[in-house]
Amino acid sequence: MSKQPAIELRNITKTFGKVVANKNVNLTAYHGEILSILGENGSGKTTLMNMISGIYFPDEGSIHVNGEEAVITSPKDAFAYKIGMIHQHFKLVDVFSAAENIILGIDDGKYNLKKSTEEIRKISEQYGFELQPEKKIYTMSVSEKQTVEIIKVLYRGADILILDEPTAVLTPQETTKLFEILRRMRDDGKCIIIITHKLHEVLSLSDRVSVLRKGEYVGTVNTAETSESELTEMMVGKKIELNINRTDVNDPKDRLIVKNISCINRQGAVVLDDISFTAKGGEILGIAGIAGSGQRELLESIAGLQHLTEGEILYHNPKTDSIDNLRDKTPVQIRELGVRLSFVPEDRLGMGLVGNMDIVDNMMLRSYTKGKSIFLQRKAPKDLANKIIEDLEVVTPGASTPVRRLSGGNVQKVLVGREIAASPKVLMVAYPVRGLDINSSYLIYNLLNEQKEKGVCVIFVGEDLDVLVELCDRIMVIGSGRITGIVDGRTTTKEEIGLLMTKSKEETKESSDDN
Amino acid sequence: MIVQFICRAILLGVPLLYGSTGEIITEKSGHLNLGIPGIMYTGAISGVIGAFLYEHACGNDADKMNGILAILIPFLCAIIGAMLMGLVYSFLTVTLRANQNVTGLAITTFGIGIGNFFGGSLIKLTDSDMPSVALSKTSQFFCTKLPFADDLGWFGDIFLSHDFLTYLAIAIAIGTSFVLNRTRVGLNLRSVGENPATADAAGINVTKYRYLATCVGSAVAGLGGLQYVMAYANGVWSNNAFGDRGWMAIALVIFALWKPSIAIVGSLLFGALCNANNYIQGLGTETQELFKMLPYVVTIIVLVFTSMRKKREHQPPESLGLNYFREER
Fold first, then answer.
1. I want to staple A84 with a disulfide (CB 3.0 to 4.6 A). Which of A158, A341, A448, B47 is the partner?
2. Strand, coil or helix: what is A6?
């Protein structure tokens, strides 16, 4: 059976400011196949798909649907070309029923909820979904919500379905069920594109795999003819030359001993599962893992911002030589002990800095308790702000500019600079170079190295495996809230870490049972 | 006396029903319009101006006045006046993205200012000793009873003896309920108020819906002001007589859990509560004032109960009070 190309991307380039998200990407997906787009975080997978579904518009290149050039400028255009995208973050109205959500915005004259409900039932049965159209969204599980999103797209008659990390939020059983449905849709002649970074899913589900790395198209292989290691190699690729001056660890002393901690999030899912490790002063401990594997919760647990269900966190205070259990302390007490957290979330400003306040005021967020009188002491924070601006080359009109107006990289410098200025004993940084250009990234790496030489215990959560391997003394890999391995930064390879990262829950359990 | 009490409660409740129906329409689009008191006041004065000018044009002679025009002119004036206020509110919040609470309060202050300014001007024009404008002729046209109302005893008094704006209020509330729950426009409107980003992604014009809902809601609320002057006050306008009815209408929205059908019953209850002090014997001045508090106490009790039960359908629209613009995430 010769397959028809459903969608073709030719020389697609997309830049956001100076950041090149996609560069000269060529991609073809056929009707009746499942194509996986594989790549690390930040490799431009989602940007590429957003261009197909009309959220972004490519700077260069063309998109062809069913052999004809298509201009897609809005989600509505995409629907007209029968393209439907299921986003990672669902777009649903909580108090509406499934049926109401599915027909929302369709203008086909008559409003007949009963008739629509019947049609929705028919689609559900055709592909084997389990969905009650009358059920309200807010009573649904994540997997049910996803089902609503998929049917929403099918109801609009989509032939080309794009799923962005569909399994990120699903349990293994739900994933299996979803895959069965996706296969059924493929056999029905639909073209399915799935974005993922989970290797075993790629191998079990897709017909072909296209790999992106740092915005560039690496190649496409038939799933049947490839292997996990080949895909890892393609995905991680050759490193860019980084000159990070990694010094040897001098006289490491145990600083932070984490013992069997577990944590459950507000939705009741286990986000940290029996984590134990030791972080030493004078070393950089890297934490690698797929986004959302529990990195954030782990750091927040140490900073006292998460409620632990089990375990303890012991802190060796180098000043007094005493041992404290951080679990019993408030976040303020933990900070006073010298444990500092600088977390850079996806939106960069979400944690740690107040966008509408200027640099001086943001410095004061950490020192406002220090003053003796009832009035604020502005002198010290002002000096600190000026020092950070000078030392870290923050580009800003002045110390009184609202942080919100600075560019992302400069915001991050302010954030990291402030935490470092407090001369911490434990410094935790998460994604400090997110979205930064090479130069600023280097600056941050060097700052971390300086801290390490001062005997600080640095915990570094990173996305870029190249950097982790270059920078860290030891690298702890976590997956689905469990530690899947701790490796030596000097001897490990990206491939090894990549494999550890994508190790699934079952495998982790098995291997820990073997031990 | 019970019949009289109920009639009085209806008379007091109808302006509240207009106000809350209007505010429900507005809030369903995600606009927390705290300008409702000002908008109702503007609606009232606009109607009064229209009626005043028409009475003057006819030489203050009731026989020369055309019944239909006497009703239609104030009616349209009230709608237009109130709608303009709604338009100002939408322009500030949707187009200029101003804070909704601040804008709403400003509209209230502004509307009451407009009312008192034009009210004062009209009073000066009449050259009377009383600080009020009497439009009793127009009021009579508004309050024409149904022909057989007087022949049916208590039934006629309770159900058939009211001015036409009372019946219109109930019709609008029922109609609003139907549109919100049974039509595509209603579904789209609710989605705009709940989750504008989702509505936007589904191809619904959020800006259009918010403008329209706010203007239509304001027009409805404005009729409440008109009904107050023409029916409750028998066509007599005096500055600041409208009181806190606008705020009570907003409280009624919460009481009614954003459902116009409940607002019909609620307005009657509020009307009765406002009035109860006049029908209970032997109350001192201080206890009377306490009685006037009852509608608000009831609202607070309802709030406590609904937040305890936490049923999602009884909560305000999710993005109520939040402006939407696509580029911000």
1. A158
2. strand
Q: What is the pLDDT along chain A (515 residues), one digit of tens a residue?
A: 457 789 999 999 988 776 678 888 898 999 999 999 987 656 778 788 888 888 788 889 999 998 889 888 887 788 889 998 888 778 899 899 999 999 988 877 678 888 889 989 999 988 888 888 999 998 887 788 889 999 999 998 889 999 988 876 666 667 788 999 999 999 989 999 998 766 777 888 999 999 888 788 888 999 988 887 788 778 766 444 446 677 777 777 788 888 888 888 766 678 888 888 888 888 899 998 776 778 888 888 888 888 888 888 888 877 777 788 887 788 778 777 777 776 665 555 556 778 788 888 888 877 766 666 777 777 888 888 888 888 777 777 778 888 777 766 677 778 878 877 777 888 888 877 765 555 667 777 888 888 888 888 888 888 777 778 888 889 998 887 888 888 888 888 877 887 787 665 555 544 444 43
- State the Cα–Cα distance between residues A206 and A198, nearest whole angstrom: 12
* This prediction's pTM: 0.71
Question: What's the CA gap between A96 and A102, in Å, rounded?
Answer: 10
Q: Quick check: A111 and A128 in contact, CB under 8 A? A: no
Q: How many domains does chain A have?
A: 2
Contact A104 B188 (CB under 8 A): yes
Between CA A58 and CA A46 the distance in angstroms is 13
Q: How do strand A253-264 and strand A270-281 relate by DSSP bridges?
A: antiparallel
The A270-281 sheet, strands edge to edge:
A270-281, A253-264, A308-316, A323-325
Which H/E stretch holds residue A198?
none
Last residue of a domain, one of A206, A236, A266: A236
- The answer to the question of residue A480 being in a domain is yes
Closest chain A C-alpha to B326 CA, distance in angstroms = 11
Asked if the C-beta of A368 comes within 8 angstroms of chain B's C-beta atoms, the answer is no
Please give the interface size between A and B, counted as residue pairs whose CB atoms are below 8 Å apart.
Answer: 55
ipTM beyond cut 0.85: no
Of B163, B167, B171, B112, the C-alpha closest to B138 is B163
Range of the domain at A148: 5-236
Number of domains in chain B: 1
Question: Any idea what the CATH number is for the domain that residue A193 is in?
Answer: 3.40.50.300
Of A240, A195, A244, A229, which is closest to residue A35 (Cα–Cα)?
A195
The residues, ordered by sequence, that sit 6+ positions from A193 with a Cβ below 8 Å of its Cβ are: A7, A29, A34, A35, A36, A37, A49, A52, A160, A161, A162, A163
From B27's Cα to the closest Cα of chain A, the distance in A is 15
Q: Is residue A247 part of a domain?
A: no
CB atoms A104 and B194 under 8 Å: no
Sheet holding A339-343, edge to edge: A339-343, A426-430, A457-461, A284-288, A474-479, A482-488
* Domain co-membership, A493 together with A443: yes
Q: List all residues 6 or more positions away from A44 whose beta carbon is below 8 Å from its beta carbon.
A: A14, A21, A22, A25, A212, A214, A215, A216
Name the residue range of residue B207's domain.
2-328
How far apart are alpha carbons B118 and B238 in whole angstroms? 11
Q: Judge whether A104 lies within some domain.
A: yes
Give me the phi and psi of A391, to 5 degrees please: -65, -45
The answer on A160 and A29 residing in a single domain is: yes
Which of A89, A100, A104, A110 would you mutate first to test chain B, the one with the most B CBs within 10 A? A104
Query: A92, B199: Cβ pair inside 8 Å?
Result: no
Residues of A in contact with B198 (CB under 8 A): 91-93, 104
